[in-house]
Amino acid sequence: DVMEEKWKKDREIKEEYRFDQSLGNVVTKGKFVEVYCRDHEYVDGDKVQIFVNGELVARSVSLHAGFQPVLVTLQDGFNSIEFVALNQGSSGPNTAELRVLSEKGEQLAKKEWNLLTGAKAQLIVVKN
Q1: Hey, which bits of the chain come out as E strands?
Q2: What global pTM score does this model have?
Q3: Rounded to whole angstroms, how far apart are CA atoms 69 and 3?
Q4: In 3D, which of 79, 60, 90 has the Cα closest to residue 126?
Q5: Distance of alpha carbon 81 from its chain centroid, rounded?
Q6: What angle is formed at CA 44 by the lines to CA 35 and CA 52, rounded to 5 degrees?
Q7: Residue 81's closest CA among 126, 39, 48, 123?
Q8: How far apart are CA 67 and CA 113, in angstroms?
Q9: 81 phi and psi, to 5 degrees?
Q10: Are 33 and 61 in contact (CB under 8 A)?
Q11: Does residue 85 contact residue 118 with C-beta atoms inside 8 Å?
């Protein structure tokens, strides 16, 4: 099918995909946030590692069409959440959609990334 071929086709590899990406900052008063990520393009086996404040919390997360949750307990002040592209699946680059919800279920952020293997996407969550 034409649509399937379009989704399977590799995205043009831009120079910016080689570098770490900032996903910005969000502010909350809550004790935790729920982080949801999924492959927002062709589901092709993209995998990421997730670090919170430099500590590995998920060694290998396979990105699928549906969102997968990760609960992040927050420290007071700045909290770094990093997603490291472990691969680019069968159709590069590593693509994902990220949503961050407060403990009350309010959406704090909706972001996307396109990364080459080894590059990181970082979100800062500030707990007041």
Answers
A1: 21-28, 32-38, 47-52, 55-62, 68-73, 77-85, 94-102, 107-115, 120-127
A2: 0.88
A3: 28
A4: 79
A5: 9
A6: 25
A7: 123
A8: 15
A9: -115, 120
A10: no
A11: yes
Strand 77-85, strand 47-52: pairing: antiparallel
Of 38, 57, 35, give the one whose Cα is nearest residue 47: 38
Residue given tokens 């502010």 in the structure block: 27
Q: How far apart are CA 112 and CA 128, in angstroms?
A: 25
Q: What is the pLDDT of residues 15-72, one digit of tens each?
A: 888 899 999 999 999 999 999 999 998 899 999 999 999 999 999 999 999 999 999 9
One DSSP character per residue, 75-103 reads PSEEEEEEEEE---TTSSSEEEEEEEEET
Residue with tokens 């396979």, as numbered in its chain: 62
Cross-strand bridge partners of residue 81: 52, 123
Total residue count of the chain as it appears in this document: 128
Q: Give the residue from 21, 6, 10, 66 showing the smallest Cα distance to 40.
A: 66
pLDDT at residue 41, as a whole number: 87
Q: Which pair of tokens denotes residue 11?
A: 């995205």
Strands 120-127 and 21-28: parallel
